[in-house]
Design goal:
Blueprint (H helix, E strand, L loop, with lengths): L14 E10 H10 L3 H5 L2 H8 L5 H17 L12 E4 L5 E4 L1 H10 L1 E10 L3 E10 L7
Antiparallel strand pairs: 1-5, 2-3, 4-5
Length: 141
Amino acid sequence: MTGGADVVGDRASGVVGVGIDAVPVRRMQALIERQPTVVERLFSRHERGYCDGFANPFPRYAARFAAKEAVGKALGIGIIGFRWRDIEVLSGGQPHVTLHGHVAGIARGMGVARVELSLSHTDEQAYAMAVAVRDGGEAQR
């Protein structure tokens, strides 16, 4: 690109960071079947209710786990040092993110007003992409 600024970190764009992640559905299923209580540590009551409402909840759990990792990457904190339930992936049409606790404080400190999210899954693989948008920044639609 000539004469333009990078999209990520460009103050004019309002984009703070972008994160993407993929999770094999079988890996998430094996984890949950081996340690059933892990869902309570990783997912909020609302997330569990949504996923468990499907005959096969594992692709949805995998997509939400991928989303949490993508959000951590978009905020520049990675996947270490936060409670998994501090990043909550809610549904109702387009999925959206609600941040809680330490992660919400980090986002506020960065001026992040919202995190845009896209999820996709098959029976084998789940994908998520997150874009952290600065206060006053408009994401392109």
